[in-house]
Amino acid sequence: MRNVSSIRYFMALSAVSVATAALYSMPAVADQTVIIGHVAPLTGQVAQLGKDNENGARLAVEEINAKGLVIGGQKVTLQLDGEDDASDPKTATQIAQKLVDEKVVAVVGHMTSGTSIPASRIYSDAGIVQVSPSATNPTFTQQGFKTTFRLVATDAQQGPALAKYASAQMKVKTVAIVDDSTAYGQGLASEFEKAAKSLGIQVVSRDATNDKAVDFRAILTKIKSEKPDAVMYGGQDATGGPFAKQAAQLGLQAKILSGDGVCSDRLASLAGPAANNVVCSQPGMSPEKMPEGTAFKAKYQKRFGQPMEIYAPFTYDAVYILVDAMRRANSTDPAKILAAMPATDYKGVTGETKFDPKGDIRNGAISIFTYRGEKKTFVDQVQM
Length: 384
What we know:
Layout: H1 2-25, E1 32-40, H2 47-67, E2 69-71, E3 74-84, H3 89-101, E4 106-109, H4 113-126, E5 129-132, E6 148-150, H5 155-168, E7 174-179, H6 183-198, E8 202-208, H7 217-226, E9 230-234, H8 237-249, E10 255-258, H9 267-271, E11 278-283, H10 293-304, H11 312-329, H12 334-340, E12 346-348, E13 351-353, E14 365-372, E15 375-383
């Protein structure tokens, strides 16, 4: 009996040893790499704005990884896949499909309305969250998709805010309107036109150019003969700068009104002294009015060696908002991130972010700027 007991004891001890060795030889749960897509024009006329957006998102990713992120008990490393849609709708849809195929968990972008809108259907079909930091055309969130969110006020708010400022503060009575034939430019110009007419401003003409134009003299010569108090231009700074410059060269005294596409620091170098004749609107608070705007500007400057442009704070917050959704969902599953997004209540650089049922930001603000000494200068804020 003693021999049998000894054999059984050593057999049990061996089994425990084998089990223990097996336990310690099992691989630890691997860290998870989670890819977030970012899409903006990195080439073309507004590439500097697209790169600025990407930089904002990259800064957030770097900070989050440095601090350490744990979701569902697993260490998560974020990876930003920055893509270039060149402000082209067709390219945008190709990039969107590429990101879906790469199994990104969410997308920050696209930058423009003309690319965000066509890409949105692809993300919707895949069930992937799309957060645009800067697409302002109302259509973006009016298509019935549950995946679209935006962090700025729409043209349905920006256009009226600019028209209201022109009427109340600038005493504009007559205006000529020109747009660049893009979804953004046309949309902003149309919203401005509706609001201007409702305020009693006479629209003397409506003309269209394109987003690759360099010579606006024919349109501007016609407008000069109409003698409006102001000219509203719906487009980007790459064309808005030459537009303002050529207007001044032709002796057109009317103020140039425009939206966020034109409202960049670069406008001064594109328009020269004529920039001082521009009044422009920008969805969202001015960095000077943002809760953490001044600190963010300094942080951005230190990291990238250049000043931020317009929407870097919004792409930065967009990444943090997506991570907030992951934490609340306790998952990096795209479907669970999407389910958590509507309940977002996040306080970041740009202020508090909450979404309405369509995915638009609640309580958006519109900032008004002008240029003094060829430097972009904040003058007013309209709370929507």
